[in-house]
Write a structure and sequence with these properties.
Oligomer: single chain
Helix content: 40-55%
CATH topology: Rossmann fold
Distance between the termini: 39 Å
Structural class: alpha/beta
Strand order of the largest sheet: 3-2-1-4-5
Order of helices and strands: EHEHEHHEHEHHH
Bound molecules: iron/sulfur cluster
Number of domains: 1
Amino acid sequence: MSTGNEGKMLLHACCAPCAEYPVSDLLSKSIRPDILYYNPNIHPKFEFERRRDQIVKLGQIYDLSCFYSDDFRMDDWLSKAWEGQYDSRCDMCYFIRMDYVARYAKEHGYDSFGTSLLVSPYQQHDKIASIANACAKKYGVDFAYYDWRPHFREGQAMAREHGLYRQKYCGCIYSLNDSEFKEKIISGFPDSWEASR
Ligand code: SF4
């Protein structure tokens, strides 16, 4: 658990509804994090941009600085290049994001970083924490660990009240294909979505 000595903190936001509770919790502890959207795993491009725009909106709601990267990498997720290097596609997904965030934090003068991924009961919580800790050590910055999972529903309700878009799949094209809501999700995409993949 975090010691509360986050100093200047960067919060990686995987999406607005997951980031909402962590942001409010940190603010309640007098920690004002900057927000970073770095999620090349979110497919297709239309969805990547939609979640990014919702993060910008969340930053405006809480008057927090918000940064984002337009790195969109569907090919890395489609290819099998990760095999042999990572145990699973999700391991690769966590590592790519936590490595970038830890390096970004170090290069931009933050004392620590955290991630909204730790609010979701649907993510591999311990794996994320372990990878984030390793990345923190690699770049010489602190990882601010929080277990926000008990407040997942609360955060989703807050996001609903703020009118933030709440997606029904994790992010990558595989999770979209596996979603029981796939047809409904795709019916809400613009006609051009396949061309933007
Ligand atoms: S299911 Fe989620 S965590 Fe796993 S690779 Fe896809 S987007 Fe990443």
